[in-house]
């Protein structure tokens, strides 16, 4: 059985970009980015965005479509991705949806209820509480009203904690109930592939080496350019991405450069752990060893109905 749509997912730093390129060239495909940070212009180094040469090899979509002051959501991604799948197939090519923002994959596969507009007074009230009470106390409050969301959100992730609480306080429904959606069967010909790292120590080392390479490539200049934008703040969604939020802390004098480096690497490793937790539940996906996966191996698996 050949695939009509390929979903290539995995934790950060497992080689998804290079593998997606090889696979797209082998299948005659186009790549749809499934990454919440790659949509933003001017955020290139810290997101490990595919470069000009890589994008010249294969058409890419949902990269550099927004300014960093703008907002993007899982629901917006799902709408655009479905449109792109149809358009790419109409050209006789294979859509390859590749990335590590697993909420976006779930929005596409499971669907999300539309979350009503959050009450602005509720939002302001929660944000006013954060400095005095701290994120751990608000996380404990979230655990009482939405334990499912609290289990996925780290106690030191104030942005996501506040989001879950403001949805509950504004709507009377938990964020988890909106995100759970209704499971639809996977369309015929769609294949889910997971890059699974078997060498966790190696993954941790690759994450550290990749961040050091980003610093050498000019990530600090990129951060300074973003901070110089008059309307952009550290609270914008784009700047909450790993590496960027720690960079703003350093540029604003809250931490020194080495602490910035260490915290960014730690945050990226924690992101990988969360991604692996999500991927462990993807029972329908065909799991591939990340360290040895190749386009040829994937083509062999795609030729069979069962992995």
Secondary-structure map with pairings?
Blueprint: E1 5-9, H1 16-27, E2 29-33, H2 52-57, E3 60-61, H3 74-90, E4 94-99, H4 102-110, H5 120-145, H6 147-152, H7 158-171, H8 175-180, E5 190-196, H9 200-217, H10 219-227, H11 244-251, H12 257-280, E6 286-289, H13 295-302
Parallel strand pairs: 1-4, 1-5, 2-3, 2-4, 5-6
Strand content: 5-15%
Number of strands: 6
The CATH C-level name of the largest domain is Alpha Beta
CATH architecture of the largest domain: 3-Layer(aba) Sandwich
**Quick check: average pLDDT?**
91
| Strand-pairing-aware structural class | alpha/beta
Structure in words:
The chain is α/β, with parallel strands linked by helices and 307 residues long. It folds into 2 domains: 5-112 and 181-302, 3-Layer(aba) Sandwich (Rossmann fold), CATH 3.40.50; 120-180, Histone, subunit A (Orthogonal Bundle). The chain contains 13 helices and 6 strands. It has helices at residues 16-27, 52-57, 74-90, 102-110, 120-145, 147-152, 158-171, 175-180, 200-217, 219-227, 244-251, 257-280, 295-302, and strands at 5-9, 29-33, 60-61, 94-99, 190-196, 286-289. The chain has a 6-stranded parallel sheet, with helices on both faces. Helix 2 links the parallel strand 2 and strand 3. Helix 1 (16-27) packs across helix 13 (295-302). The longest helix has 26 residues, at 120-145.
């Amino acid at each position: 059985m050949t695939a009509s749509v390929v979903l290539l997912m995995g934790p950060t730093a497992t080689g998804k970009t290079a593998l997606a390129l090889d696979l797209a060239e082998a299948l005659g495909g186009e790549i749809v980015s499934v990454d919440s940070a790659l949509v933003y212009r001017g955020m290139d180094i810290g997101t490990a965005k595919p470069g000009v040469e890589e994008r010249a090899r294969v058409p890419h979509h949902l990269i550099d479509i927004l300014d960093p002051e703008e907002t993007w959501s899982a629901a917006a991604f799902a709408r655009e991705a479905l449109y792109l799948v149809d358009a790419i197939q109409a050209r006789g090519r294979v859509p390859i949806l590749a990335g590590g923002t697993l909420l976006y994959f779930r929005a596409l596969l499971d669907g999300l209820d539309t979350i009503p507009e959050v009450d602005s007074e509720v939002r302001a009230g929660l944000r006013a509480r954060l400095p005095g009470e701290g994120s751990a106390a608000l996380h404990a409050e979230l655990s009482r009203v939405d334990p499912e969301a609290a289990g996925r959100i780290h106690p030191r992730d104030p942005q996501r904690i506040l989001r879950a609480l403001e949805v509950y306080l504004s709507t009377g429904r938990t964020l988890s109930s909106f995100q759970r959606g209704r499971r639809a069967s996977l369309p015929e010909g769609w294949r889910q592939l997971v890059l699974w790292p078997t060498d966790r120590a190696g993954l941790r080392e690759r994450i550290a080496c990749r961040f050091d390479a980003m610093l050498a490539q000019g990530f600090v200049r990129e951060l300074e350019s973003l901070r110089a934008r008059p309307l952009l703040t550290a609270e914008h969604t784009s700047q909450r991405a790993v590496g960027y939020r720690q960079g703003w802390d350093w540029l604003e004098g809250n931490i020194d450069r080495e602490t910035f480096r260490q915290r960014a690497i730690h945050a990226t490793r924690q992101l990988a752990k969360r991604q692996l937790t999500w991927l462990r539940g993807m029972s329908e996906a065909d799991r591939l060893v990340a360290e040895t996966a190749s386009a040829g191996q994937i083509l062999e698996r795609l030729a069979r109905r069962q992995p």
